[in-house]
Amino acid sequence: AGSKLREVFDKINNLLSGKPVQTEGQAVSVTQHPQGLEFVCYKLAEKFVKHGEGEVSFHHDSAFPIAVVLSGIWELHPRVGDIFLAHLHKKCPYSVPFYPARKEGTSMEEYQRMLGYEVHDSKVEEQDHFLKRMSGMIRLYAAIIQLRWPYGNRQGAHPHGLSYGWRWLAQMLNLEPLADVTAMLLLDFLEVCGNALMKQYGIQFWKTMFFIQKSYIPRIEAVTSSGQMGCLSRLKNFVQKCLQAEEIPLPKGILTPSFWRT
């Protein structure tokens, strides 16, 4: 509910503003320790990324309430946004976007960690689980760049707005595609903020969609084996439908004005 989300936002904002906040029966404040504020910014940013790789990866709609709170906090407390990006880029290098190359002397285990895989006791997580986590983080990022906290003063620009999404898309299409990962990330990104990019960039956006269909999807196909076609097929269908309809559908779960009246 919108009222519940406002409570969450106010509590986080009050904590970061140095006001006492009640939690688990006691009042806490960042002023209680010289590095209290820095610690809270760090842990809060880390928690938002964990929401992306956890909750959003399983429940796509949850990207929007989480993102709108983070967007508002980022606007009022830029340090949280900076640390959030650092955590996000480390956990999901594709959010840069960046495909790390394996350097000489880097162990396979360390390289897999650089690619975003979780490695425990030399055991690498399964590909499906890895893709799900990356998907959740990209969806959260794609939601953040298009949302503003509706109760802010809105004096300045969005702290990390749609221009960053446009840049991400352009950079992504300049990278050589990877099997599985590239098709999934493009589809996630376009499903969540394609509509907002379409409204902002108009004809330039449609030129990009046409480029994806005619040039980039064949390049993804060239590196994709027959057992990895699921994401690619969904991306092809999505792009084709959008180009035929000359419209990108609104993402599922987007927060409507009526949400804030609940």
UniProtKB/TrEMBL annotation:
The keyword Cytoplasm applies. Keywords: Coiled coil, Cytoplasm, mRNA transport, Nuclear pore complex, Nucleus, Protein transport, Translocation, Transport. GO terms for cellular component: cytoplasm; nuclear pore cytoplasmic filaments. It is found in: Cytoplasm; Nucleus, Nuclear pore complex. It comes from the Eukaryota. GO terms for biological process: poly(A)+ mRNA export from nucleus; protein transport. Pfam families: GLE1 (PF07817). GO terms for molecular function: inositol hexakisphosphate binding; phospholipid binding; translation initiation factor binding. Its main location: cytoplasm. Required for the export of mRNAs containing poly(A) tails from the nucleus into the cytoplasm. May be involved in the terminal step of the mRNA transport through the nuclear pore complex (NPC). Belongs to the GLE1 family. This is mRNA export factor GLE1. It comes from Sinosuthora webbiana. The lineage of its organism: Eukaryota, Metazoa, Chordata, Craniata, Vertebrata.
